[in-house]
Amino acid sequence: MSENKDPQVADVAESGVAGVKFVYDFTEGNKDLKDLLGGKGANLAEMTNLGLPVPPGFTITTEACKTYLDSGEEPAALRDEVSAHLDALEAKMGKKLGQADDPLLVSVRSGAKFSMPGMMDTVLNIGLSDKSVQGLAKQAGDDRFAWDSYRRLIQMFGKTVLGVDGELFEDALEAAKAAKKVTIDTDLEAADLKRLVTKFKKIVKTEAGRDFPQDAREQMDLAIHAVFDSWNTDRAKLYRRQERIPHDLGTAVNVCSMVFGNLGPDSGTGVAFTRDPASGHQGVYGDYLQNAQGEDVVAGIRNTVPLAELEQIDKKSYDQLMQIMATLENHYKDLCDIEFTIERGQLWMLQTRVGKRTAGAAFRIATQLVDQGLIDEAEALQRVNGAQLAQLMFPRFDDQAKVEQIGRGIAASPGAAVGKAVFDSYTAIKWSRSGEKVILIRRETNPDDLDGMIAAEGILTSRGGKTSHAAVVARGMGKTCVCGAEELEVDTKRRRMTAPGGVVVEEGDVVSIDGSSGKVYLGEVPVVPSPWWSTSRAGCTRVPTTPTSWWRRCTGSWRSRTASAGCGCGRTRTTRRTRCGRAASGRRASACAARSTCSWATAGSWSSA
């Protein structure tokens, strides 16, 4: 725990009822307090302790959430605790929440113990109003930035807090772009965005029956309650059932001073992985978006550039990010998923967590971390389970098949999926329940598509990258996914997709998607057995009948000194680093005495490269 606690925070550290503390500054926690601070809050505190650039803020505990959900009211002491921590934050930042001439703005973000990407709510830019937007514009010297931030607040707040249909805001935004004859948000000018703010406020008034709140503290309090309530939304409950997460944990709420990626070309936002979450390979993986706020990346509403291109855009920030990524992976001893923002050349860390990965990546990463001495073999075994092994045994497409490729996107989550094209979650669920296999096709997915994603054999989007909502959720579920297939024009209203050359895929037409290559095919592509299963079976004289039992028996040999203890192939090991009883004389696959039949060697998982 950090020794550099803010003295003003220390003054309020003992607040609460009967010694119960509901609010923690980022300087007070650590990564071991996930039960109390949630994963996001605990890791923000941990990064603060490590001296990484984290915007100041505080976390409201899961205990406060549980009290609120149980009683329908927040704990009696919570408002005073939040006020005290807000006062400390304002003193640290040198400005007041929502003040007219130079406003402090904050984000209010959910953060449960277990990662639930996109399932709960976030509101950015809290503190903006008709008056403070003028002060923000003056301080930043950028009218466009200020009005863009304000329209984002009204859009997020209206949908998340006031329950306004998000499509109404999207339709108004699309109409504004059409009137301007532009296709992307960043081409709208300050005057366009100012008119859009007026339109958004009218939507709120009509749909919510009230004006958009102009008081900054009211905005923050309502957003905190909305995040608490988001724990029990249908999509959050569905995700918890899918991932076997207990329903009684509650979520923490993180209130963080805003940093802005939408301040111009020297600003931006991104998501990074310390290794490829799809394959496990080491390298620079992630997405970056100039002149944008964080939700733009995960929502996939604009196509990103690969993170490696940040080196050409802003080398100083890129080099600093690479150092931070190495620090975090060595500290957590695992693949880390990182959110960051660059504000006019200044890098800020907004989140880190142990990243979700595919089954193949889990194998490769576990062995690499053993090779690097970061974890031992016993820990590596705990990180790969039977369900992940079973995913590796799924069939793949036959490379020799004569089929028509109609597009290609980003290989976001591997596998081979074939099904009838559907363009909304309702149809995906309905057809799936009647026994049809379907592919859910969207421009981009959002958390409301979760039930359709579960029902589908695979997901195809025309926008987004490896860090978009569709990609992250699909990897977590072991679901085939291709994202960012830009050449495919998806028309959800007419329920069709148009490919280059005029090929039209109507709802009900069969398509095939390859999550390992990103290729999209018209019609059904034949499948062949997984190379993992065939190579895994090749070297054993006694092969169990199921992948899961094979894994249990072969991992028994990894734990023991002799292969015959678990695998049954009768080959003894001569060093600690062997797999499935294959004798090895060194650390790398090239040294394995049975390289041609060893699944770890032939699949590439043993190499530390």
Automatic annotation (TrEMBL):
Signal peptide: none annotated. It holds the Pfam family PPDK_N. PROSITE patterns: PEP_ENZYMES_PHOS_SITE (PS00370). SUPFAM superfamilies: Glutathione synthetase ATP-binding domain-like, Phosphohistidine domain. Residues 436-518 form the PEP-utilising enzyme mobile domain. One of its GO terms (molecular function) is pyruvate, phosphate dikinase activity. Residues 78-303, 310-360 form the Pyruvate phosphate dikinase AMP/ATP-binding domain. InterPro entries: ATP_grasp_subdomain_1 (IPR013815), PEP-util_enz_mobile_dom (IPR008279), PEP_util_AS (IPR018274), Phosphohistidine_dom_sf (IPR036637), PPDK_AMP/ATP-bd (IPR002192), Pyruvate_phosphate_dikinase (IPR010121). This is Pyruvate, phosphate dikinase.
